[in-house]
Amino acid sequence: MDEHYDVIVLGTGLKECIISGLLSVDGKKVLHMDRNGYYGGESASLNMNQLWEKSHGKEKKAPETLGSSRDYNVDLIPKFILSSGLLVKMLLHTDVTRYLDFKVVDGSYVYSSGKINKVPSTDTEALTSSLVGLLDKLPLRKFFIFVQNYEENNPATHDGLNLKITTMDALFKKYGLRENIVDFIGHALALYLDDSYLQQPAHDTIMRMKLYADSLARYSKSPYIYPLYGLGELPQAFARLSAIYGGTYMLNKPIENIVFDEEKKIIKVTSEGETVTCDKIVCDPSYFPNKVQKKGKIIRSICILNGPIPSADKKFESLQIIIPQKQVKRQSDMYVGVMSSAHCVCPKGKYIAIVSATVETNEPEKELAPAYALLGPIQEKFVYISDFIEPIADGTADNVFISKSYDATSHFETTCEDVMDMYKRITGKDLVLTVHPNILKQQEEAGNQEQEEQ
């Protein structure tokens, strides 16, 4: 009889590996397969030979001037981690932090009037920031104090407003904040990709700003952290977690056939002539092209530099730049993430700048010109355009739960929101991001064993 699993996960992208880890910790019997021979899928980190081969084909070799291939760990999907954000909570929920080392990102900038400025995020910084004009300093300080004091369940901190009804646009107008200030608050602090949030209730934006401030308070340099050796470490860490709790992993496993029974309750999956069954499938969009829809395109440009970018503080070995849509006459923001050897992603003396944006014209790379202008001389460039894909259905009818593609944002909040939504659809319950009881039990058992050995 075919071996049966509660869940089969296809693809080892970050979202799929997080789900695999979460379900394994929950006690589910999980089989995880990938047609590729490496972890990460679309969200992998590649060495220079792999990156060069992906871009130029196997017949060409990366030039020696780029340095040693093994010194590179280049993210295909560049994102930073908010230090108080959802991904950190997931890492703590599952104790995956023990497999990873992080380093704080040095700075966060926003593009305004043709140059970049450090993002002010407190009332004190607002008074000294060159981004904020003299007439804007006092209104902005008052607004920041309101945000700092806001408590969802304490009406005394609401300034007479119901922020679950009042729009963000109305709140900005109440405090007399002008368009350039609104621009950096919405895009560099609340981290929205476009301006649609302005007509939504203000509560969510205020909570996003508080998350940014909480994250910034942890390290003071910036609100972001980033793992040593690149984001490809994250899927592997969650895969290791799944394996500890009984998950089975198989790489280089092409999927030959997927068959549903008449009631769509038992699913047969065949790979290399072997068939197993499961109750549910979790996968990235590439495994079921007939069950997904294209919602746009994302362009990402990986740039290898010979030094820090001239427009930022030369001491910064890592930084983010957000280019709000209105500053460059677009419908959505552009993002630049800059990393160096400090995070073990490239040789010493080299820098990696990755530009990400939602495609809006028929000439996608031309759209990146404002970002390129900030980088200085570019030694090598790798440009990729990919479809942004979403599942057509939520998976509850046929038990196939498909993740969304990764968007252009420079952080993991939308990625984690998709994971939490998938988890609820798969299990029927909310993901509670406190330390999992099974993790606590394992930690206790490990502690007892260590005491016995001593």
UniProtKB/TrEMBL annotation:
One annotated GO biological process: protein transport
Family indicated by similarity: Belongs to the Rab GDI family.
Pfam families: GDI (PF00996)
InterPro entries named in the record: FAD/NAD-bd_sf (IPR036188), GDP_dissociation_inhibitor (IPR018203), RabGDI (IPR000806)
CC terms in the record's Gene Ontology section: cytosol; pathogen-containing vacuole
Gene Ontology MF term list: Rab GDP-dissociation inhibitor activity
Gene3D superfamilies: FAD/NAD(P)-binding domain (3.50.50.60), Guanine Nucleotide Dissociation Inhibitor, domain 1 (1.10.405.10), Guanine Nucleotide Dissociation Inhibitor, domain 2 (3.30.519.10)
Organism: Dictyostelium discoideum
Name of the protein in question: Rab GDP dissociation inhibitor
